[in-house]
Design a protein that fits this description.
Elements lengths: L1 H10 L1 E2 L13 E7 L7 H8 L2 H4 L2 E7 L4 H7 L5 E5 H9 L4 E5 L8 E4 L13 E4 L5 H12 L9 E4 L3 H9 L5 E4 L3 H7 L3 E5 L10 E6 H6 L1 H19 L4 H12 L4 H14 L8 H9 L18 H13 L1
Parallel strand pairs: 2-3, 2-4, 7-8, 7-9
Antiparallel strand pairs: 1-3, 4-11, 5-11, 6-9, 6-10
Length: about 325
């Protein structure tokens, strides 16, 4: 356990920013863990780098820890708040973990099903290989959902193979080793440029589903509710910042730092796509969690209720504050 805590803390970095301070005269230190280096988690990095958490009295330090490490680190006491996948969270709660999902930055599935050039209809995917990161992951669920949308049975009609991160899956698709994979921006742009088909844009499908969200330790909610609330305020203000066209250049610049990339067109594609699906508040619904449970073969049928996972009290207070400011 000591090794895990030390390893995670060595990975952490702190954003340099300015803003208001906590009651002690200094910003309240708040280590936050996030589960993958992806466009889906990039807004929280942008929010911190832009100094928005500081304006709410928080000195946030962000730590990247992939796989199941974020949940383990939170349960070990290294972090009280994290951005964690919904399925791993639910599994931990089923095992007795006192964790609550309080928000999400995206209420849509921002993926498309990209296929090789010679495949132009869903039926042509029968008997083909479809790449996901790992079986049981969010990309696995999304791939199966997308395949059903084009009239295929993912259990019988295709071979789903685990090939790791998005970049490796993209290389496999380009190299002809697989016939389809799930892509997010900016790979959606690269797929279009390469002349590949993207069968379905799941962001346009009316389907509530939480891939990941803000997870908070139950004891921290009880002992530090104002810190949690300030984090939620910063998150909401940061989402406004991310969407605002006046901040486009700054967001693209920070995205470039985050991914160590100077591919401006790809970064702009990412900002544009995520801006379109970012809600006005970090909203999460019981229906989105019901869908996560119902569409996971290991969770469906266990009788788990969304209220066992969710704590919507902070969102409700945030909505009241926003309404009062109008």
């Amino acid at each position: 356990m000591f090794f895990l805590r030390t390893f995670l803390l060595l990975l952490s970095f702190e954003a340099v920013a300015f803003g208001q301070t906590g009651l002690s005269g200094k910003p309240v230190p708040l280590p936050v863990v996030y589960s993958n280096l992806s466009m889906g988690s990039s807004p929280v990095w942008i929010i911190d780098k832009a100094g928005i958490f500081r304006k709410h009295g928080l000195d946030v330090s962000l730590t990247l820890a992939q796989g199941n490490l974020p949940i383990q680190a939170m349960l070990a006491g290294s972090f009280d708040i994290g951005f964690v996948g919904a399925v791993p969270l639910i599994g931990a709660v089923l095992s007795g973990a006192q964790l609550k999902l309080t928000a999400t930055m995206f209420d849509k599935i921002l993926y498309g099903l990209a296929t090789s050039r010679d495949i132009t209809t869903g039926s042509q995917l029968k008997g083909k290989r479809v790449a996901v990161s790992q079986i049981g992951s969010s990309s696995d669920f999304v791939a199966r959902y997308a395949l059903r949308q084009v009239g295929l049975n993912p259990e019988k009609d295709v071979a789903i193979v685990a090939l790791g991160p998005a970049g490796e899956r993209w290389a496999a698709l380009q190299g002809g080793h697989v016939d389809a994979t799930i892509v997010q921006p900016p790979l959606t742009l690269l797929a279009r440029k390469a002349g590949l088909s993207i069968f379905i844009d799941l962001a346009k499908v009316d389907f509530e589903y939480t891939i990941s969200g803000v997870v908070t330790i139950g004891s921290f909610i009880r002992s530090e509710p104002e810190t949690v609330m300030n984090f939620m305020r910063g998150l909401a203000d940061g989402m406004d910042f991310y969407r605002d066209e006046r901040n486009k250049d700054q967001v693209v610049r920070i995205l470039g730092e985050y991914f160590r990339s100077n591919a401006t067109e790809e970064l702009e594609e990412t900002r544009r796509a995520y801006s379109q699906v970012t809600p006005g508040l970090p909203l999460i619904s019981a229906k989105s969690i019901e869908n996560v449970i119902a569409n996971d073969k290991n969770l469906a049928g266990l009788g788990l209720k969304p209220e066992e996972i969710l704590d919507l009290s902070f969102l409700q207070k945030l909505q009241q504050e926003r309404k009062a400011k109008r």
